[in-house]
Amino acid sequence: MNKCKRCGVRVIDDTLICPLCHTVLTEEAQSEDEQTGNYPNVKQKTRKFRRAGRILLFLSLVLEAALILVNYLTFSSFPKYWSAITGGIIAYLILTSWDLLSRRQGHIRKIYLQIFVVMGLLLLMDVSLGWKGWSLEFGLPCMIYGLVAAIVICMAINSSSWQNYVLMQLAAVFLSIIDVVLHFTGFFHHIVLAWTAFGLSVLLWSGTMIIGDRKAQNELKRKFHI
Prior knowledge:
The protein has about 230 residues and is an all-alpha fold.
């Protein structure tokens, strides 16, 4: 068992550095009667979680390999590349599960990840089914609607730190501009979806900048180091 001379805590696991003050631990012998008040085994739960994650990843790879084999044996049927869709869904479920259980990632980063991963999954499905363009024509505006809704909800819940979501609003505006540009290239036919997404994102951002005034401007200066 290791003990920190500076903090006086005893660490049960094989950690060499004190988790409190980061001082190198010294090894000492201790009887069973002195086991009370020790620093808990911080690696035990982490190891179990990682082992369960590796087992889940392995089973997912085996499942996808089996689906690819079935897809190969039935390649003449439509859609020909349906195993790519199942692989994308499995990858999305694993990534989402890891993201939701991870405490290191903030909720803003999780929202970004969900938006772009879902968009990538829709593109994969569209390509695998013969590319009709619905993933961009309908999926992209829906992603922008979802991002705007998430920003409004987060600002309502965290009203004291609403300025933290200004950068997310700019991301929504940028995505909506891409949506409108794609329409002008003749790729899209449902103009209402693209312009509604653009109007909502610009309205949210301009309203925040006008109502937030100096606080919102300072946040932009801080983010972009102006």
